[in-house]
Amino acid sequence: MEKPIRVRYAPSPTGFLHIGGARSALFNYLFAKHHGGTFVFRVEDTDIERNVVGGEESQLNDLIWLGILPDESPAKPNPKYAPYRQTERLDTYHQYAQWLLEKGYAYECYCSEEELQASRDAQMANGIAAPQYDRHCLHLTAEQKAKYIAEGRKPCLRLRIQDHHDIAFDDLVRGPVHFNNDDIGDWVIVKSNGIPTYNFAVVIDDHLMEITHVFRGEEHLSNTPKQIQLYEYFGWDIPRFGHMTIIVNEHGKKLSKRDHDILQFMSQYRELGFLPEAIFNFILLLGWTPSDNQEFFTMSSAIAAFEESRMSASPSMFDPNKMMWMNNHYIRQLDDATFLKFIKPFIARLTDISGKDDAWVLFLGNLFKEQMRFGAEIVELAKPLFTPLEVNDPESLEVLALPTTTPVIEAFAKQVEAMNDFENETVKAAFKAVQTALGVKGKPLYMPIRLKLTGIPHGVEIVNIVKLLGKEEVLRRLRG
User: Fold this and answer.
1) Which fold, 394-478?
2) Is residue 257 flagged as an active site residue?
3) Looking at 3, 254, 257, 441, which residue is catalytic?
């Protein structure tokens, strides 16, 4: 009988939810839900000095915002597997480390960092490109250990890897993968301060939490043989591994957190007004291809369609323009009530809306809905409506210099003074009246008024600008 599928996303709270982390979480989640399994959110928080205040909560909240809902987490524990933070599991790690020590699979290492560096330098001087630990402490006598202890040295624990041992596994993304322990060297499982290293703690956690499948970034590929060696020593079932391809920028280089041309964190996208549906949909297609080339997915349709065999082994390019296009698509699909709730906070950054009703806010938002790529963009798009720009382009200056410009502006102002409402037909009738009275039409009629109201020669339909600003503001700008 096959075990129930259990997967996990286990971030370190040293930062916030990154694009790569979001994709790892999403693919694990989709795989679990497609197969009726369980998705676990676990926290690898042993790098205490680098932990960020609020990092865990932020990552969890951003996952939930994306629609990735953990079945188990520190906030939703299953007593059988809890606790879910590594700092709350230290005693467990020490028990297993002691077992390895007693079995001879691990040993104490008293070497200082200076001694380790000297050994690495000597190996490289002898032509060894990838230095390994030289096992100086593997067979220490009791007297040698006592001497080191007397010097105040505190040992770390190293795993004694099996010499000349092949480790092979069938990667769910990459296919057959092969390593040999001779290329790895004895590695530290518990640091001298008693804190377990990642590769040691993750194996203990995955085993005790009965994780069956592990999908993660390909940067973890070199960690896998180290972890498999531990599984073999303990005699435990080894989970299936799948290492996702890297995400690259438009220049084909690995996406780095120092790549400032691309927004990296979910919190940044939330702040700018990207919709979670769009972000989820975009990330879904970073390294996974549907069988029918479908472009748009809901979470439920993605769960139904997700097949791990369609995950790509080639790098996935992060295209900011495609993300903008996709977000614009989802914004345009919003109904009025949802769009109003979405756009209101961004319009509030643009102008004081305390005296405006929702109909006015929605009207303003809808003027830019079709072109808006993200919520905060309305601040720049609509800015001229609230803070007219200075006219300085040749075309506009030429129009303002026409002999008909001043009469047109004054005639339209008089029409506005007489208006009782600002519905489209009323505003259009005012322009028609000016055209009839002065014999001016086209650009000489409309552009001078647009320039007086906004400072820009093109953009939102002039009728809507007048309707939005209202009588008092239109007259102030026309005669200002």
Assistant:
1) Arc Repressor Mutant, subunit A (1.10.10)
2) yes
3) 257
